[in-house]
Amino acid sequence: MDVMGTGFSGRGAMLIFGIIALFAGLYLFPTLKHHRKIVYILFLFPLLFTFAVTVIIPLILGIGYSFTDWTGVKISKFVGFANYTAMFKDPAFIYSILITFIFVIINMILINVIGFVLALLCTSSIKASGFFRAAYFLPNLIGGIVLGYIWQFVFNNVLISMTNNISLLSQSKTALLCIVVVYLWQYGGYIMLIYITGLTQVPGDVLEAADIDGATPIQTLFQIKIPMIASTITICTFLTLTSAFKQFDVNMALTNGAGSVPNFMGSYLSNGTQMLALNIYNTAIAKNSYALGQAKAVLFFIILAVVSLIQVRVSNSKEVEL
What we know:
This protein is 71% helix and 2% strand. The chain has 13 helices and two strands. Strands 1-2 form a two-stranded antiparallel sheet.
């Protein structure tokens, strides 16, 4: 049926009119309760369909591909757990998991602490607080790839004179620290805004009553403000946890995984700053091992889901205690 264009037909016009009439009729004349339910389902359908096509179906297909010799184009045979066995025998992959966990723990602590401190400063009586909010948030608007190349120039050209002409990106330990610094600089302002939202929701009369009772600023902070923004802390912790786990663009642009590790599991590694997401990308795209890369991605999904669920449960229990 040619609905639009030069061959526009009467049937096409009737179809369009019928769809419009269906939505209008169900919404404007809800003589029965189930009419509104139908309307809700119809309006939710595009979102659910998009979610299924872009998330659910690729996830199911990806799990299936991880048990085959998928080349990105075709499947020749079923290989069982061969891909999973191979990835656990890969020292570079095991090391990427290790440094990813280290990176996540460091960033989760630093970003939340610094973001909370900045939020306290920006919600205080400091002058030009709006300017500081915008300035702290601005790095978050820069794309990770661009940000990585900017800081690569800073580390390799601007700061090299302070390190005896030795680039901080040339050694795996200092290079990983550089990634932490860049990610903290990028993401800290975003977390700050969420904490600002939480702090501004603390009732003013409660703070005023605490001040009248003689509470010190430290007592007010730990006994009133922090307990009352426990849900905000949970959200920020979850966001920093999941975002740090998925770190890819800054890692790729800043070091591309480079950095030597002399001896890990009896092997010499030349990718000492390659975190989990970048390792999966290099396996699937750079090495054309799509099935192995998909198996790593499935494990990555499981790790992220388990860690996130544990974090949310622990945070919720802490909320109850507070």
